[in-house]
Design goal:
Helix content: 40-55%
Shape: elongated
Strand content: 5-15%
Radius of gyration: 24 Å
Order of helices and strands: HEEEHEHHHEHEEHEHH
Strand order of the largest sheet: 4-3-5-6-7-8
Distance between the termini: 24 Å
Number of strands: 8
Structural class: alpha/beta
Largest sheet: 6 strands, parallel
């Protein structure tokens, strides 16, 4: 059954007896907007509300962090090359014949191996560094208040959060601003303080994460699902996709996830 037909069937009857479309609040990511492709898709299939969030402070800090990381990598690479050049010229008289080529290859491999280790560490710790910055904390708090006010005003049936928006949705659940069914798309929960980085009891949520995600480690979503509070119904869906999870829109499964989550939540 195609997603549009599912959506027409999975509606709910209002107080006036008429069938109502599912109301969705979509929380976009750091570089997303109400004009993004996920928002456009949700607006075509649901009664979707999406407000523009001021994520500029976090984006600026994140880009500055990446620039500093590149500088560190260049320093490490140059230092390795200089040190290895000195080592090679001092050791070349002792290494002759067939042993010289493996020795040279080993020297060439060391800087790239170190760069790989540093890049991996930076990727895994970037959000941990960001969440301790005062400007980032203030931005997350302001965005949380904005979405909490929107939820109170709209009274949605389902909340959908993508990346940074997923982290905000988790915080809204933890702080009690929202308690309904929630769809989390590659949530960047490592941006949150540890005290609000968990789903409370009786949460109904689906977490979707791409197996090829290089921005938000899938391990963070696995921890989020594993540490959900008691009596929660939280499911992890792993897709062969990257961080934007664009395949959810191209194959229409984003609509199916929303409708199934809504139906599951109201069936209990």
């Amino acid at each position: 059954m195609d997603p549009p037909r599912r959506i027409m069937e999975d509606t709910k009857r209002g107080r006036d007896g008429n069938w109502k479309p599912i109301r969705v609040v979509f929380i976009h990511g750091l570089e997303g907007s109400p004009r993004g492709f996920k928002t456009a898709f949700l607006c075509r299939h649901f009664h979707c509300h999406c407000e523009s969030l001021n994520t500029g402070p976090i984006i600026r800090q994140y880009r500055a962090l990446k620039v500093n990381a590149v500088k560190q990598l260049l320093y490490v690479f140059v230092a390795c090359i200089v040190a290895e050049s000195i080592l090679f010229f001092r050791a070349r008289q002792f290494i002759t014949g067939c042993a010289r080529l493996p020795f040279i290859l080993l020297l060439l491999a060391i800087p790239f191996f170190l760069m790989f280790i540093i890049l991996r560490r930076i990727r895994l710790t970037a959000f941990a560094v960001l969440r301790n910055m005062r400007e980032v904390k203030r931005c997350i708090t302001d965005c949380t208040k904005q979405i909490a006010a929107q939820i109170k005003r709209v009274q949605p049936d389902v909340v959908v959060g993508s990346s940074f928006g997923g982290a905000l949705a988790v915080r809204l659940l933890s702080e009690g601003h929202w308690a309904g069914p929630t769809l989390l798309l590659a949530p960047a929960v490592d941006l949150l303080p540890r005290c609000v980085r968990a789903l409370p009891p009786r949460t109904v949520a689906t977490v979707v994460h791409g197996s090829k995600d290089k921005v938000v480690p899938i391990a963070s979503s696995r921890r989020l699902v594993r540490r959900a509070g008691g009596n929660s119904r939280v499911e992890l869906v792993v897709r062969p996709d990257t961080h934007p999870l664009s395949s959810l829109v191209t194959d229409g499964s984003l609509a199916t996830l929303v409708t199934d989550l809504h139906a599951h939540a109201h069936a209990h």
